[in-house]
Design goal:
alpha/beta; 6 helices
């Protein structure tokens, strides 16, 4: 897909022409989309997401990344461990006239689905805790976007994901984001 300008706006502002507009109700405080890690995810989603892919937004917060994935034609599942984040995501999904395949409160422990693309904009310590589940949630030839990693923890995360091939990375200020590919086993 061609890279477009993603415009994140509060629900009361006017949409911009020639942009992919994502409206967010900032009153629920689960991310306004202006953080460096979210910006990295937006860039990577535009690069790696494809129409019809099964995608997971792990730790969906306000739903910004889920909304973008859905607007790009992905079949999206989302989850967060916070009930209020799920409520915020659902309200923002409605604001943007998009729906998800499924959304739940919780993490990956009971999920058995496999995805073409998984986005985990979390923190390094949570990514490390979930590394096994993240590996298991990937189909062959799928992509994993990890973000929310302080630069000083980037090497630790890389050590935890050596079974996957690092295909892309981006540093914005003190934040690192990494993209991995799960290769086909011969």
């Amino acid at each position: 897909m061609q890279i477009v300008i993603v415009y994140l706006l509060s629900s009361w502002l006017e949409k911009k022409e020639n942009c992919l507009n994502i409206q967010i109700n900032p009153a629920l405080a689960f991310g306004s989309g202006h953080h460096e890690s979210t910006n990295s995810c937006i860039n990577f989603i535009q690069k790696y997401a494809k129409n019809g892919q099964r995608a997971l937004d792990l730790g969906c917060g306000s739903g910004i990344l889920s909304i973008l994935l859905a607007k790009m034609g992905c079949i999206v599942d989302a989850c967060d461990v916070d009930d209020l984040a799920i409520k915020s995501s659902k309200e923002n999904l409605s604001l943007n006239n998009v729906s998800l395949n499924k959304i739940w409160c919780g993490s990956l422990q009971k999920n058995t689905e496999k995805y073409d693309l998984v986005v985990a904009n979390l923190t390094a310590d949570i990514i490390k805790i979930l590394k096994k589940e993240l590996h298991e949630s990937l189909k062959e030839n799928s992509y994993l976007i990890l973000s929310g990693i302080l630069n000083r923890y980037e090497d630790d995360i890389k050590q935890d994901f050596l079974k996957l091939r690092l295909v892309d990375s981006l540093r914005l200020k003190e934040w690192s984001s990494l993209v991995y590919k799960k290769e086909v086993l011969c």
